[in-house]
Amino acid sequence: NKKNIKAKGKESKEQKDEVQKKQGSKKQKKMQKANKAKDKQSKAQKANKAK
Fold first, then answer.
1. Where do the H-state alpha helices sit in 1-51?
2. Residue 24 to residue 47: CA distance in whole angstroms
3. Which residues are CB-neighbours of 35 under 8 A, at least 6 positions away?
4. For the region Disordered, what residue ranges are annotated (predicted)?
């Protein structure tokens, strides 16, 4: 019986890791989009200053 509990615990931990990985990649994509937007803004500001 204890073996089954340990196996279940291991499985759930692996599932949590998978979920965290998926959430992490989503967050990274959002961050990348935000960073790209910031880059565009800073480039536009530099271009305006150059004018």
1. 2-50
2. 34
3. none
4. 1-51
Question: Residue 51 carries which DSSP code?
Answer: -
Q: Round to whole Å and give the CA distance between 5 and 13.
A: 12
Cα(15)–Cα(27) distance, integer angstroms: 18
pLDDT of 40 higher than 80? yes
Q: Which residue has the tokens 């931990």?
A: 13
Determine the pLDDT at residue 5. 65
Q: For the whole prediction, is pTM greater than 0.85?
A: no
